[in-house]
Specification:
Length: about 425
């Protein structure tokens, strides 16, 4: 990178180093300081290429400007990446996601499509039980809207992390409900939320629910009511987008924006017409993600009927019956579709008739291994699961303990640092 960076510095400091006419118009126009990321030495060469590539233009542009030193470097890195078996992927396959959704909705049973989720049952019913209305982002009008009766919407489950996160407050609420309001604050939103809005629009959806933007963060009463029905919010969503890549709300959804991810797949021909590829189990990948270590995401993942997971540069779809991914071939034929091993957190088992107290104990073992910023939220982040177990056991709960088996759970010891 020394030649390109040297020329970049001279172009940015014409009074010191003199003018430079060798950079192409795309490279000259990039408003980055050569001394700061993404040009800093702390980033590896692939990361530099990824950032530079989408900032300076298309592959065709780079190939057509060999006289530009930065374009030459990027072209070399592109060839090197392809030789290593990596391919730049522009977008998530929206047609594939829509097919996953359609197959689940039309071919799966009551675990994915309970009776209450039928359109005939939802007609003229509240969008969320015990709520007068739900705030949603209208991705076409670019504003917040209040919805009272049920409509199809998509939810986002993600990790906030230690980054600045634009939030809904009593001060900005009225402004955000004006048409095109999100156009004004667009670059103040974390990347993950921006990507989720774009994805919902590309999938043909209209409404998106995001906690930071749909719960009034400085209104304790409104926030409390929202948190108490968080299970219904995620369960009633048509789909939950799960941002399981990265550690913060700025990690984005790799694959939504052009060239925002790299994918690779090793394929070997083992016989004429037969190829063998490596499939990495989804749960083994997910368990190591920061997303799987946060307490708040536990019930969001568990209670969602369908999840679209962005993980390790690929997209996975998981419902209560199947798990599918971009790097596998699926034979969609009614209910005889391809299935993989069930998750240890298989959602449908939460509603199994056998021993709900055992199911609750199992969930607690998983839950208490997770991290929570405010220990006072330990019960609140389990509200939905507690509600489900309470219905099954036909008993109330006291501080997270089912009263029907109070003596047994008094002796329960978690596997982590969470406390009631």
């Amino acid at each position: 990178m020394s030649t390109g960076i040297s020329l970049w510095k001279r172009r940015k400091n014409p009074h010191i180093d003199g003018p430079n006419d060798k950079l192409c118009e795309k490279c000259i126009a990039v408003p980055f300081d050569a001394h700061k990321p993404p040009f800093g030495d702390e980033l590896n060469i692939k990361a530099k290429y990824r950032v530079l590539f989408w900032k300076v233009g298309t592959i065709q542009w780079i190939q057509e400007h060999p006289d530009c030193p930065l374009c030459r470097i990027l072209h070399f890195l592109l060839i090197q990446a392809v030789q290593q078996g990596q391919q730049p992927s522009k977008y998530t396959t929206h047609d594939g996601v829509r097919k996953w959704l359609s197959t689940c909705a039309n071919s799966h049973g009551k675990d994915c499509n309970p009776s209450w989720s039928m359109e005939s049952s939802l007609k003229n019913t509240p969008i969320i039980p015990d709520l007068d209305h739900l705030l949603l982002i209208d991705v076409f009008e670019g504003c917040l809207v209040e919805v009272g009766l049920y409509c199809k919407y998509i939810a986002l489950s993600y990790v906030w992390g230690q980054v600045s996160n634009f939030r809904l407050t009593t001060i900005n609420k009225s402004k955000l409900m004006r048409q095109k309001a999100f156009h004004v604050i667009w670059y103040s939103l974390p990347r993950t939320i921006r990507d989720a809005i774009d994805l919902v629009r590309n999938l043909g959806g209209r409404y998106l629910w995001v906690d930071a933007m749909c719960l009034t963060q400085n209104d304790q009463e409104a926030t409390r009511k929202g948190m108490e029905v968080m299970d219904f919010i995620y369960e009633r969503a048509l789909l939950t987008i799960v941002a399981s890549s990265g550690n913060t709300a700025n990690s984005g959804l790799p694959g939504v924006q052009e060239t925002s991810r790299w994918i690779s797949q090793k394929i070997e021909t083992i016989a004429p017409g037969v190829q063998l590829a490596v499939y990495i189990d989804f749960d083994n990948l997910l368990k190591d993600a920061t997303y799987s270590n946060r307490a708040w995401t536990f019930q969001e993942q568990l209670l969602s009927r369908r999840g679209l997971f962005f993980l390790n540069g690929e997209v996975y779809f998981r419902c209560r019956e199947s798990t599918w991914s971009e790097n596998t071939v699926h034979e969609f034929d009614g209910r005889d579709n391809m299935r993989f091993l069930s998750s240890p957190l298989q959602t449908s088992s939460l509603f199994a008739p056998d021993s709900p107290s055992f199911q609750y104990r199992e969930r607690l073992h998983h839950y208490t291994q997770r991290a929570l910023t405010d220990q006072g939220d330990a019960l609140l982040a389990m509200t939905g699961i507690i509600r489900r177990i309470s219905d099954k056991m036909k008993c109330t709960f006291l501080q997270g303990i089912p009263t029907a088996v109070f003596d047994q759970f008094m002796l329960f010891q978690g596997d982590g640092n969470l406390h009631r």
